[in-house]
Design the sequence.
């Protein structure tokens, strides 16, 4: 039979993200996938021309709603490096707490959507019910639910009182208990395994060759986590990257499942180590020079490039998001997949297309 | 096998996880950035908030004594309230209600107070 070409996305009933792939199939088996990017390009990098470098914090938060706090923290980190600003240790750890809360809510969101992707609707609802507790923590501590606007250049804008810290710890205990109950379903349930095991296999060599990052790479046995470089407050905390070796959708799901538990642990460590002191420093002058900073987003490595020439507006702002790096590995996973399993495999890299296309 | 059954049973006998919004509203948390409002009597019409706002949704007209905000362009970041020298901007706990038509919120400063300020 001659091959059939099927457009997949940007609007698809299962996928929440407007990814656009052109799939070539033969007897319901995908033989080739070609991506088309640009459907939701918003030109956010160009906004650096008209918004000053302080206002850009709010702009980069909108690159991605789900990991907004990490975007702002990374951008602030870049400008702080250019201007030689020493951020107080308390601010560093507060950034870690909010970043890890973002990772938890992002992974819970993904686990829910993934469950929805293989048709386990009620598991999706349960995951999002737990996620709501984390959203409440963010709303109560930062003032907003999703795009929390706590980072500024030179530190953070909000502080946590000792009572709030205690409350966060109790909410985390509660959420963790419920989460571990759901974990049995994600990891051991027959129907979940049936839909995810052996789907979209990416070998370790291939993952390395194609530059897979984040949980996509770690699911294939690449033990790389940018947090290990010890940026921000991570140098003060203790953790090991979560690695699985199978390289299939199930392994990637397991990595994210375990990373949520790791983040709970990191938040606890950060709260226990929170030093007294200032939460931000005054910023004077304009940045000058060129810098690259990296950080670990829920989806992988995030990279910021900033060039400035001592003016209020930056010369260039370039953002490379993890999904951009994970698209080549996705294209390597798809051939051989049955058409009905394509959404599960696509979801397994946790695509964030609004990040990718900015 | 049957890993999901305990969760199903628990859900059968517990109350709903969602609320009947908007009939039933939750008490807002403290310091939540809901709707932006101004105590116009305290405003000096200096325009700092308008310059700092990343969404450019505040307009200040010193001559006419007008401070206005487009609540539909506002992103509730709170930068304006942080940078206001007289601290006359504040956020209500509840979020803005849904509307059928978008409107700009215009606040006019009473004239006699303007004279007071210039003394
Ligand atoms: S910064 Fe404050 S005082 Fe100045 S115009 Fe805005 S609201 Fe009025
Ligand atoms: S909250 Fe932010 S977006 Fe809204 S008016 Fe104030 S500065 Fe502008």
Sequence:
């Amino acid at each position: 039979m001659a091959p059939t070409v099927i457009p997949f996305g940007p609007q698809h009933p299962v996928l929440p993200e407007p990814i656009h792939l052109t799939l070539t199939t033969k007897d319901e088996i995908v033989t080739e996938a070609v991506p088309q990017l640009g459907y939701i390009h918003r030109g956010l990098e160009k906004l650096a021309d008209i918004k000053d470098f302080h206002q850009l914090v709010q702009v980069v938060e909108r690159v991605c709603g789900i990991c907004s706090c990490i975007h702002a923290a990374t951008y602030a980190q870049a400008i702080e490096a250019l201007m030689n600003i020493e951020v107080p240790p308390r601010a560093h750890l507060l950034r870690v707490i909010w970043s890890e809360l973002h990772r938890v809510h992002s992974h819970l969101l993904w686990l829910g959507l993934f469950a929805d992707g293989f048709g386990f609707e009620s598991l999706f609802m349960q995951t999002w019910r737990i996620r709501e507790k984390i959203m409440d923590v963010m709303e109560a501590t930062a003032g907003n639910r999703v795009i929390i606007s706590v980072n500024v250049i030179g530190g953070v804008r909000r502080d946590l009182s000792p009572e709030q810290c205690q409350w966060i710890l109790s909410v985390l205990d509660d959420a963790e208990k419920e989460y571990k109950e759901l974990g049995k379903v994600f990891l051991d349930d027959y129907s979940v395994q049936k839909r995810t095991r052996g789907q979209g296999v990416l070998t370790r060599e291939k993952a390395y060759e194609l530059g897979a990052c984040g949980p996509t790479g770690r699911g294939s046995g690449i033990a790389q986590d940018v947090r290990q470089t010890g940026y921000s407050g991570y140098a003060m905390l203790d953790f090991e990257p979560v690695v699985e070796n199978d390289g299939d959708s199930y392994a990637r799901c397991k990595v994210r499942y375990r990373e949520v538990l790791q983040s709970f642990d990191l938040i606890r460590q950060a709260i226990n180590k929170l030093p007294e002191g200032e939460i931000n420093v005054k910023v004077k002058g304009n940045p000058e020079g060129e810098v690259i900073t990296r950080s670990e987003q829920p989806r992988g490595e995030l990279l910021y490039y900033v060039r400035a020439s001592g003016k209020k507006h930056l010369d260039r702002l370039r953002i490379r998001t993890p999904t951009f790096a994970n698209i080549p590995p996705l294209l390597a996973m798809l051939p051989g997949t049955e058409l009905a399993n394509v959404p599960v495999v696509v979801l397994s890299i946790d695509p964030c297309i609004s990040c990718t296309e900015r | 096998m049957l890993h999901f059954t305990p969760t199903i049973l628990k859900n059968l006998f517990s109350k709903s996880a969602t609320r009947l919004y908007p009939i039933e509203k939750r008490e807002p948390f403290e310091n939540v950035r809901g709707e932006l409002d101004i105590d116009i009597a305290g405003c000096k019409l200096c325009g700092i908030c308008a310059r700092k706002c990343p969404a450019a949704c505040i307009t200040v007209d010193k001559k006419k004594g007008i401070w206005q905000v487009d609540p539909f362009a506002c992103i509730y970041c709170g930068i304006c309230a942080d940078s206001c020298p007289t601290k006359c901007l504040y956020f209500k706990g509840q979020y803005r209600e849904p509307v059928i038509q978008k409107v700009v919120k215009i606040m006019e400063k009473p004239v006699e107070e303007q004279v007071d300020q210039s003394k």
Q: What stands out?
A: Chain A has one domain: 38-356. The CA atoms of residues 287 and 310 of chain A lie 5 Å apart.
